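User: Show me an example of a complex going from sequences to structure tokens.

Assistant: Sure. Here are the input components:
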Amino acid sequence: MKNNRNLIEMKEIFKHFGTVTALKNVNFNVQNNEIVGLVGDNGAGKSTLIKILTGVFPPDKGEILFEGKKINLSSPKIARDLGIETVHQNLALIDLMSIARNFFLGREPVKNLGGIINILDKDKIENVTEKALKDIGINVRSIDEEVSVLSGGERQSVAIGRAIHFGAKLLVLDEPTAALSIKESQKVLDYVLEARNRGLSVIFITHNIYHVYSVADRFTILEHGEKLGDFRKDEICTEDLIEVIRCGKKIERKVN
Amino acid sequence: MNDEKHFTSFIVKYFRHHPEFGALVGLVIVFIGFSLTATRFLTIDSFSGIVTIASELGIVAAGVTFLMIAGEFDLSVGSVFGFSAMLFAVSAANGIPLLISLILALLAAAGIGFLNGYITVHFQIPSFITTLGAQMLWRGVLLAITGGFSVRYREESTVLAVLNSNLWGEFRTSAIWFFAIILFLNFVLLRTQYGNATYATGGNKEAARILGISVNKVKIINFIICSVLAGLAGCIQFARFGSVDPVRGQGMELEAIAAVVVGGTLMTGGYGNLVGTLLGVLLIGMLRSGLIMAGAPAYWYQAFVGLILIIAVILNTNIKRWSLK
């Protein structure tokens, strides 16, 4: 019997960089169809944990289970093939290319021309991009526009839209609302909810407790490489959450 | 007032999607200029002369464009041009069948391109330096081996005829090679996955890598394409002259880069196309013939190319910047 409630399970993860302990015995899991807020101050180990999860580097110790099976995430490509899509802080968009070309970059649909050469299926690229973005609720002026003309929020939207469209099971968002206006942040939060509606799980990494609190089902708090705790949304209010991060202490469960 | 604004925004928008626009305007201006000042400029002979010059330079420039879009430079194309031509000539003069000689020359060019790419990518050296070194290295080898003497080969042969011979009036088969290569590479660039990968590699290497594109492979392949085309151009020019000297192709790398940049391709990579290079090369060919026909001393040619290069870069980068506002 496998535990199929958990989409991903990271068990007793350790990671050192030289003499610095970046992660110490961290357990982290995300269930199917769940939005988890991964929070903590700078240097808490959030990025290290996520880099392990997305195959950038391996842990020193610990194991990772995906859909109940033990996996070896030795490269970003393996993570992607499993359905772990990361929207990086610097977005992985090519400024000088059109939105449509960016959307399909690295996995372009092709059609065969006279049995000799595979050419880009331009119609499909354009139609699918337009439809996919619209379905998720993303409006851009024209998919022929270069990415460089987009605002920060629009760029974030395209990157998230791409990740959702390409059948990710787990969407990892690294500070998706940093540097966005209030309006744009709200839109991004809507996409996160939309992703869950489509059956995806989401890891939302941020400093902004208010943003993550409005969408997440659960919070995992890291501090100095250790996990301070897991809280379901109904167990903790924003003020307490901020308090835990600020004081860096494990809080004793308040008994009401 | 409003119309004017619409017109400007239309031009700017058009320019954003058509890097070759600036070169087209330049070409028209230079064309009109010479039509008015140079007698005999508006003749078939004059045009065929321009096309002949443009074709040989253009095949080199086509490869340089492809590589520049992937974000790298090749300063060794002039040396490869000479090296391949010399290898072709020496091999032919020693009785090796022409077709095999040609293949040998192109393989040598491919090898040099691979080395340029491999060294640049694996030792993470700027290609400016790698290929500057390669330029001196291969030119030096060429001079040392030949002792500075030129090689002749004047037999009739189908291979030479296909490479470069009179086709119609003074128009030569080299023009067909040039246009076919431009069309083919532009097609690859705009319509295939590989073209997309090339733009992405030059546009943002890190992002391209995250999206699963093997940027190092793309770069090495483009170095090879660039080098092979330089070698082919060398062989094509040899087929026209029937002789080759060890300084053949010297300075060609800069002329090719000038043509590519005038054609709207960004030196920093990720933007440009081959139609722009076609126009840029024709512009340079037209300057060379036109100045002579206008009675200017030959020295002025270089000065004019320099001037046009600077104007083109100012316009290209700034219009690009305005268009993004």
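The lines above are the inputs; the final block is the predicted structure for all two components together. Chain A touches chain B at residues 76-77, 80, 88, 90-97, 101, 105-108, 110, 117-120, 122, 144, 146, 148-149 (CB under 8 Å).
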